[in-house]
């Protein structure tokens, strides 16, 4: 008992002494200073599950875990994730009431709730109440734990519920269990490690022990608290501060806090009733130490008691309703300091608060309604410092404020309480070198304060004409420059009271002649004036002015013309703040380096500029910024906003000042900030980046949740290195966070998806989610970098590997299958190609064989055609002599033999013609050649041409028609062949005594009055044709079987040709036949009729020209043409036929011979025949080529040409006539016909000669001649006319001019004109002389010379021979004849 009394007495004395030591320090705290402890808050509005915060813990990853009265929360700086109890899920936490949080050596989170302990498995994101798997590795005494404590050395202490203590060394994986001393009943309550490595243990009975850190031997034991509380048992907590002293508190008791001085081994009790250093509440919930060594004591209803160990003064941090950054509530339930020095404060009802001295960096002075000592007025315009370091503050409506910085007191001067202050809106201040204060006002003019009174400088004073004094500046020489709102700048020379204009010489002017916003002096003494028109630089010594303004197309011009501030730094650089950015003047190149918000400024409008040791500070409408500039490529910009403690993001223009101590002052509409830039600490901690959420198709994935048949996340996202997605799961989002709690809103991010993005993409702190869609199958790596609030970037990016699987058809297995399929397809394709090639070869072989057969057929056809042509020449040699013999008188027997020869020759000719027609149908095709004529008469004559055959075979032949006459258009040749073939077949297969009838019917076509349908029946009583053979009768080469008594002499092509000719006419042919009774062929042909009716008996078949009907000229001797041995050239390759023709023509002509065209051309040039007869088909040069050559050569173009051919087609005739042939005779032919055509052509040529002879006159040169002969005559006449007067003009000269030999010229002129060349020249000269004799006054001799005669005698001789009178008589006669 006595010992207990002594302990209490000892504690009382210590408290008295401790109070005496600390009393004076406590009273020195200024009530006027602003509160430096400003907090950031987090509550249910921000996602917290409950506002009662009981505990904190920051894990190794960097997440902050918050235990509340209703749920566990995880905070990443942006988002709160809540974990709550779910009765239906055993993997959730067992209770929502969280009491305490701690970590085990494996970094598992232990959660102590009202219902006991839970362990959170971060990998599976599950809670477990089964502690055994987590505690077995540590080999503890038992598993009934009260708390796990990690000390500064990395060792873990397990406090057992039975009071036991275990230590686990993670480095050596060793566990030590300690026995509790016998006098420490109740067990260990808490343990800490001090700065020296000693362990301090307190027991529930209040006994405090100091133990060796290694051996755990007891070094010291204190019973003071045990004695004070009469050995009661409590739950104690310990804190070892940086000095090695121990702080002891009882969280659930009103016992204050105990301070154990380790050096003195003395305990001091600090509580509500303490002398001098008292707490404001004895209910202490938590005690921590901040980075500055201050002890934070959290109390219930007492806020935070901040104890300064240097003087043990206590500062009470309490809730202030007027300060949004004050403590949110005074009931503190938890305190926690993390590794970064942030102090987390848990309150009873208002969530959590957290503080760091660098979190809210700027001291803020503002007006408090409840504090009279606070700033009187918030809206600040200007600052200036006097010689004592006090501040004069100009406000925007609150007058002038004086701040005594030593006493932290404010004095306000307004119009109401200060005589001479003419306006409460102060816009400029200047404290000059004579310790006078100049005050510029808005509509109050300029005021000067001498320390005693305000003296207005009135408007009607000397020189000052503006009431709005916007800028005041004193230069290095003591001159005062005054900038106004609308009247430009004024100048007050040092010591003078007279205002004047700036010292600017004539010829120089300022751009800023009205509004002046900024004035500054450079190191050369020049004054820089800024306004709305750029910058004017005034040189007071020379009076010159230089201008700088913004130029649109020059990047290095002033960034903007609206200048707001100008700064001259210690290096001599000039900085210009404008409404469009910041400009740095380069004096060497006289240009500017510009900075805007794109370069990192918080805003492009720079309001005011200050400098501190090379750092340029600027205020903007969006916070403050500091620029550390080294060169154009090396500069750093830091930005600060309202979150850092600024009065507001917006500042006022010119409301900035730098004090003599180097402090920076910036003012705005909500007071002002004052700070020392050297004391601002940059957050150097590079933030760790964690992935916080993975969404698939906008749905978050949880661990183990099955999606499309499997779990995508098998562990938490923070513990997942790789995510595998199926090919259709290619729309996903990933969220991330930088675990930086210093204004996380200011964090910056850069991300890149390797394999997709080529460059880093930047995001701000408000956008922390990236989404990718429709990624191709492949492997990707999402990398994310983060920068903290001060722009410090993490060195290593966080990485999440993402694999998008290919669909089955794009997998390696599928590719293998494709490969096998391709190989198989190639094999099959190869096989198919081989088969196809083989089939193609067979087909080609068949085609080749077919082509060879076809070519063989064509060869056969060509052979038959050629031999048919060859037949025509012998036939001509047979028929022509026979016809000639038949005209001569013979005896009847010889005549009968000649007629039989002639008849069979004609039959042979018909067969040859059929072969030729078949060849045309097969190769060339046929066309109709219509002629107009009486078709009924034509058919009748064709039928009766078979009368002789009818009589010989004793077969009756009759012709019937319902129309006597029908004038229509039809193809004579083809219709004749149709009828000939049908009648020939009828006679061939009709026996003697039979009948053949040809009937013709004509009917009108109702649809067309001009057309009629002609029907021809050829009916016989022959053997007939069976039904099964009738369809084949019109096929080529088909021959019908006939009785043995008949011989089928047909070729099988007649009816085929007949059907084709009928088809060409647009008609059709039908057969009706009965075997043994006969056959009837019915032909229907549409015709275009001209006239239909009865025919005249004497009418002829008009419009029809056939060679077979040409009548030869029998009386050749009676022709008018002079045929006295004219020369005819005969060209024929067949010797017999040429001999035959020569024999017949020699009676009338001189005949020249040639075997081919080439030989004939030479003879034609040499002999100039009167006419050429040539065969068409000849070797070396055929008749067509020869005719073309003759007609294209001027020397031979006048010679007529007759072509002989075995071709009967129209095409060959047209081709021959087209190239200039005069006539065309088809073999075989009647010789008299050929002779008649020769006579006609020679007669026509002689008439042409007479024509040219008549045209040889002076006027003939005016005729328009187009033929070759005409062109030749015109050219000869022109040459003669040009040489009339030349007596030496001769035939040799004329032949040279014509380009012809004399012989050729002679033959040509003789043929065309009937005159020799010399006669032709003389005739033209005489013709010209007639004109001279008629119209000129020349004598006969002069006319003779004029027309080329050498003397008049010769001229008279030839003139008389031509005109039967001499020239003089002709001239006299003409002159007597009157002119008509």
Automatic annotation (TrEMBL):
InterPro entries: CheY-like_superfamily, HATPase_C_sf, HATPase_dom, His_kinase_dom, HisK_dim/P_dom, HisK_dim/P_sf, Homeodomain-like_sf, HTH_AraC. Residues 1274-1373 form the HTH araC/xylS-type domain. It catalyses: ATP + protein L-histidine = ADP + protein N-phospho-L-histidine. It is an enzyme of class 2 (transferase). GO terms for molecular function: ATP binding; DNA-binding transcription factor activity; phosphorelay sensor kinase activity; sequence-specific DNA binding. Keywords: ATP-binding, Kinase, Nucleotide-binding, Phosphoprotein, Transcription, Transcription regulation, Transferase, Two-component regulatory system. The modification 4-aspartylphosphate is found at residue 1175. Coiled coil: none annotated. Transmembrane segments: none annotated. The keyword NAD does not apply. Residues 1127-1242 form the Response regulatory domain. Its EC number is 2.7.13.3. This is histidine kinase. It comes from Anditalea andensis. The lineage of its organism: Bacteria, Pseudomonadati, Bacteroidota, Cytophagia, Cytophagales.
